[in-house]
Design the sequence.
């Protein structure tokens, strides 16, 4: 069963008046449920752009992205925000936690957006799964980098999304902490039978995925 599909996906950026650069050149891409996929490529190759398009956080120049058979490229922003909150978990390199919210509030936020009434209960359960049951009330500036990324993982998993999109999830951590975070991430994704796409420079992290792709010159191989 295909959880995510991209068809003829193109992305251009205007670099000067009347001049554009083609970042993605008509990519076709599909991911099966429960699989783990890595995408590697040099800096500037378009990896993060591609991931943002798959998440509906950016709009393609042309082409379609479908999640569970729903074309997200044709959705308005309000509907897309709700759909993404329920179906996609996103993990960023720099965590992007809300600094004015506690760990518990950060994790419950996607549930609140989705209109869930059990947001606090589910957020506590998610934080306990990542080993932060004693950090509910801590704010990001009181947490280590590894702890912040574990909060981000809990936030990504809390809605039970079908797809996890991870952009350099260990890139802002030292090697030891990064390995521990990767171990936790793969463990939880496997336990929950979720699908994960990882963009990374880390060849070791990429090698842990069941399928591996490289993005070069706007083409996915």
Sequence:
């Amino acid at each position: 069963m295909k959880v995510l599909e991209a068809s003829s996906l193109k992305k251009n950026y205007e670099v000067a008046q009347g001049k554009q650069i083609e970042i993605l050149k008509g990519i076709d891409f599909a991911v099966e449920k429960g699989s783990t996929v890595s995408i590697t490529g040099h800096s500037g190759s378009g990896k993060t752009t591609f991931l943002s398009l798959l998440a509906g956080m950016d709009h393609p120049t042309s082409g379609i992205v479908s999640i569970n058979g729903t074309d997200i490229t044709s959705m308005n922003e309000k509907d897309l925000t709700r759909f993404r909150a329920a179906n996609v978990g996103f993990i960023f390199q720099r965590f992007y936690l809300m600094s004015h919210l506690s760990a518990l509030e950060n994790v419950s936020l996607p549930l609140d957006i989705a209109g869930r009434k059990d947001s606090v209960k589910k957020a506590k359960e998610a934080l306990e799964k990542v080993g932060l049951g004693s950090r509910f009330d801590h704010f990001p500036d009181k947490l280590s980098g590894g702890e912040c990324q574990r909060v981000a993982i809990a936030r990504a998993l809390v809605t039970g999304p079908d797809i996890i999109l991870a952009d350099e999830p260990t890139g802002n951590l030292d090697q030891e902490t990064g390995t521990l975070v990767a171990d936790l991430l793969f463990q939880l994704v496997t336990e929950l039978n979720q699908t994960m796409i990882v963009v990374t420079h880390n060849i070791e992290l990429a090698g842990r995925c069941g399928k591996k792709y490289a993005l070069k010159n706007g083409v996915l191989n």
Q: What stands out?
A: The first strand starts at residue 2 and ends at 16. The mean pLDDT is 93.
